[in-house]
Amino acid sequence: VIDTTDYSLKNTYQVGSYPEGMALNGNKLYVCNSDYGMGNASISTIDLSTGGVSEFKSEKLHNCVSIHAEGDALYVLDYGQYDANWNQLDAGVYKVQNGEVSKVADATMMAVSKATGGTKIYTVNAPYSYPAVVPSYQVFDVNNGTLSTFITGDDVASPAAIGVDPVTGYVFIASYTMNPDTGYANYRENCYVNVYGADGKLASRVDGGVGPVAFTFNYSTVKVFD
Question: What is the DSSP string of 142-190?
Answer without folding.
Answer: TTTTEEEEEE--TT-SEEEEEEE-TTT--EEEEEEEEPTTTSSEETTS-
